[in-house]
Design a protein that fits this description.
The complex is a heterodimer.
Chain A: E1 4-15, E2 18-30, E3 35-39, H1 46-53, E4 61-66, E5 69-70, H2 76-85, E6 87-90, H3 102-113, H4 118-131, H5 147-158, E7 165-169, H6 177-194, E8 197-201, H7 205-210, E9 213-218, E10 221-225, H8 226-230
Parallel strand pairs in A: 3-8, 3-9, 6-7, 7-8
Antiparallel strand pairs in A: 1-2, 1-4, 4-5, 9-10
Chain B: H1 3-16, H2 18-57, E1 61-66, H3 84-93, E2 97-112, E3 115-125, H4 129-133, E4 137-140, H5 145-150, E5 154-157, H6 159-165, E6 175-178, E7 181-189, E8 204-208, H7 209-217, E9 226-231, H8 237-251, E10 262-266, H9 267-310, H10 312-320, H11 325-365, H12 377-403, H13 407-412
Parallel strand pairs in B: 3-8, 5-7
Antiparallel strand pairs in B: 1-9, 1-10, 2-3, 2-6, 2-9, 4-7, 5-8, 6-7
Classes of the chains: A alpha/beta, B alpha+beta.
């Protein structure tokens, strides 16, 4: 069974009087250690799909098995636990807490998991900051860091609880091409060396082409999946 | 997130906006301040009254009154009533009784030469009165047993009467007139401070009860309004009370099963009555001050709601990295409780400072009062607990609102 298994996932929500159909039955298998880019025009549902995979959003119908567990039926607390333990988020606008230091930002997920305490938590956060090349910036506040540095802090934060999935929503959207390169190199490295499943949403073809598999969405449905050709067809059908 | 960490995060959040936090807790500060101050002042007043009552009469004074009411509430006599000789009998026959005096009340105008003054209290008593009241003579002597028998026209006066009627001379040996009847002054009482009610004690004239009856009232009888008895010591109050009741029932020929025709009260009962009054006052004023705590709580709720909205994005981020709704709830709740508790602590400090200040001011304006400083530990504990609960109560709604947020919406919030 695939690590991430989406079956006929639908998501509709109301915006005022209008009912928006963000996902119109997506079926998708993603294996452990894949490097995957979600693409598509805005409004195609790629962010919704990613939020669903990230357990922030809950599909209206369908089934989502993460490592064999059904996420759609999970409680808020169970999904919070999954986000905490198995998933790391990287956002376009970094989403760091501005009033605490970089190091404290990295510690944040560990505060909620409570697996490491006190000094050992600091040590891990320091180690992660070193991993992303920011060991000199521990006590800086996000506002004192450049965009690329902030995004690397966000990646360090995403890695805090050794997640198996890294979800990146337009991670280079606010970065210049040079820092984009750096950040994407770091992401690729994590995928290569640590076997973390990377799923990224991007508009940027160059960024998307770094991924080993590209999926295109339109109107809430998968229209093309480069992974499909390599694997046996029926599991990644689109409707 | 564990509790310690939550508290740290809350403190950090508060430290970021000190001015706002300070203004937010102002209501709580004032509330707790008022509770501490009012309760403390009330309790010192109560204590002052208590000590005054005790110093007024001594700790071991017992009062006996006529009680004309029978059990069915009709006014009828079931005994002979109190008479002056009851006092002598009590002093002689009750081992726990040190001294006893009848009290007959009157008041009026005193004239000496071309001066006159009002007398608050003209009391008919016996020779043991000064012992009962623990009062001394300033000058001269007291009237004698012989004066009582003959209803002699003698009196002992208080210092105020002496000052008013005999501003220059020694009043002992002179006479004053009440209702046109001359009384020879045999002694002057030592001066006494006004009591807590501001009642002057020195506007008094003492004379034999028999004299008051016969010369001023023109009554042949020796009925008296009350008896004032002192026990040998404070520990023997109960004994004395029992002995007084037994002896008076016997002397008044009250048959077994019939109610007493008198009532016995002692100072400790007065004190407990006063204590009840102070307690009621304390609770009343404390509650009024407590209302401002609730107002303060609304202030906290208001600011917490603003804060939750302002920090929507933070809430989204925390949820994205794995905060459960209850973690968010706890974070904001702890923040509200910290706010109100810190405000409470500040209020306690201010309340204590003001209690000392006010007491000092009272004592320096009214030098004779020697008002005590009593900081009620109960009021501190209760108001702190109350302040904390106010935070809990008014913090709950904003915190719940925060915990109910949708992480996606929260992350998009600008």
């Amino acid at each position: 069974m695939a690590f991430i298994q989406l079956q006929n996932v639908c998501k509709t929500y109301r915006r005022g009087e209008v009912e928006v159909r963000a996902l119109a039955g997506v079926s998708l298998d993603i294996e452990r250690g894949e490097y995957l880019a979600l693409m598509g025009p805005s409004g195609s549902g790629k962010s919704t799909l990613m939020n669903s995979i990230g357990c922030i959003d809950r599909p209206t119908s369908g089934s989502y098995l993460l490592d064999g567990a059904e996420v759609v039926k999970m409680s808020l607390d169970e999904r919070a636990r999954l986000r905490n333990r198995k998933i790391g988020f990287v956002f376009q606008n970094f989403n760091l807490l501005t009033r605490i230091s970089a190091l404290e930002n990295v510690e944040l997920p560990m505060l909620y998991s409570q697996r490491l305490r006190g000094r050992r938590r600091h040590e891990r956060a320091r180690m992660l900051m070193k991993r992303v090349g920011l060991e000199e910036r521990l006590d800086h506040y996000p506002s004192q860091l450049s965009g690329g540095e902030q995004q690397r802090v966000a990646i360090a934060r995403a890695l805090a609880n050794r997640p198996s999935i890294l979800l990146a929503d337009e991670p280079t959207g606010n970065l210049d091409s040079h820092t984009s390169q750096e950040v994407m190199e770091l992401v690729a490295q994590l995928n290569r060396e640590e076997g973390i499943t990377v799923i990224l949403v991007t508009h940027d073809r160059e960024v998307a082409e770094r991924a080993r598999r590209q999926i295109n969405l339109r109107d809430g449905a998968v229209v093309s999946d480069s992974g499909c050709t390599e694997k046996e067809g029926p599991t990644c059908s689109s409707k | 997130m564990d509790v310690l960490m939550t508290i740290r995060v809350a403190l950090q959040a508060l430290a970021r906006s000190k001015m706002r936090a300070a203004l937010t807790v102002l209501g709580i500060v004032i509330g707790v301040w008022a509770v501490i101050l009012l309760v403390s002042i009330c309790q010192s007043a109560g204590n002052k009254v208590k000590s005054e009552v005790l110093s007024l009469s001594g700790t071991n004074v017992i009062y006996v009154w006529n009680n004309w009411r029978s059990r069915d509430g009709e006014r009828k006599r079931s005994g002979t009533g109190l008479i002056a000789s009851d006092a002598e009998a009590l002093a002689e026959e009750c081992p726990a009784v040190l001294a006893a005096s009848p009290i007959v009340y009157h008041s009026g105008q005193a004239v000496a030469g071309d001066l006159n003054c009002h007398i608050d209290r003209i009391l008919g008593v016996n020779t043991q009165y000064l012992t009962v009241r623990n009062w001394q003579l300033g000058r001269g002597g007291f009237f004698t047993q012989g004066d009582i028998h003959s209803a002699a026209k003698v009196c002992v006066i208080g210092q105020t009467i002496a000052d008013n009627l005999f501003p220059a001379a020694d009043p002992v040996g002179q006479s004053l007139r009440i209702k046109g009847i001359p009384f020879e002054i045999v002694g002057v009482l030592e001066t006494r401070e006004a009591n807590i009610f501001g009642e002057e004690q020195d506007s008094i004239v003492l004379m034999p009860a028999s004299t008051l009856h016969k010369r001023l009232f023109g009554w042949p009888e020796e009925w008296v309004a009350s008896l004032m008895v002192s026990a040998r010591s404070a520990d023997r109050m109960e004994d004395a009370t029992g002995e007084i009741k037994a002896l008076l029932r016997e002397r008044h020929r009250i048959v077994r099963g019939m109610a007493d025709d008198f009532e016995v009260r002692n100072t400790s009962e007065f004190v407990s009555a006063f204590s009840t009054i102070t307690t009621v006052m304390t609770i009343l004023l404390g509650s009024i001050a407590g209302v401002s705590l609730i107002v303060g709580g609304i202030g906290i709720m208001n600011i917490m709601l603003v804060s939750v909205t302002e920090r929507t994005r933070e809430i989204g981020i925390r949820m994205a990295v794995g905060a459960r709704p209850r973690d968010i709830l706890r974070q904001f709740l702890v923040e509200a409780i910290m706010l109100s508790t810190l405000g409470g602590l500040l209020g306690v400090a201010l309340g204590i400072a003001f209690t000392f200040g006010l007491t000092y001011a009272i004592n320096s304006i009214y030098t004779f009062t020697k008002w005590p400083v009593i900081i009620s530990v109960n009021s501190i504990v209760i108001s702190l607990l109350f302040a904390g609960s106010v935070g809990l109560f008014f913090g709950f709604y904003p915190a719940r609102k925060a915990s109910k947020m949708d992480p996606i919406e929260a992350l998009r919030y600008e």
